[in-house]
Amino acid sequence: MNKTCWLCILLCCPLLLAACGLPSGTLSDLYKENLSDVSEISIVDGRTGEKTNIADARTIEAFLKDMEGVTFTPLQDQSAREGYIYSVHLFEDGDETFSFTSNTIGEHYYASEPDFHPIVEGYTK
């Protein structure tokens, strides 16, 4: 093999390995705490900057129930990108315990199936 081919292999391997080691699953799989302890949810619309805070226990429970069927899967391409449509922050007694955007969880890029945008959008109106 020529040097260019080896260089390409060396550059691509870390990206593939990074995505392989990331967990996939539902929100309840990825959330390290107990979802029933969430006391507030904050949603930011990345297009407008508008922020919606949800503190009503029934609404929080409904939101989390609606999110139960959404699976988050790490993207193979973990290269940097910018922007998001929605950012969701979960709080317990005023402390942020978890956050995710329409394309990230933590510093890693994920896809959701089904797309969770319609769920989140329903709680921002």
UniProtKB/TrEMBL annotation:
<protein>
    <recommendedName>
        <fullName>DUF4825 domain-containing protein</fullName>
    </recommendedName>
</protein>
<feature type="signal peptide">
    <location>
        <begin position="1"/>
        <end position="18"/>
    </location>
</feature>
<keyword id="KW-0732">Signal</keyword>
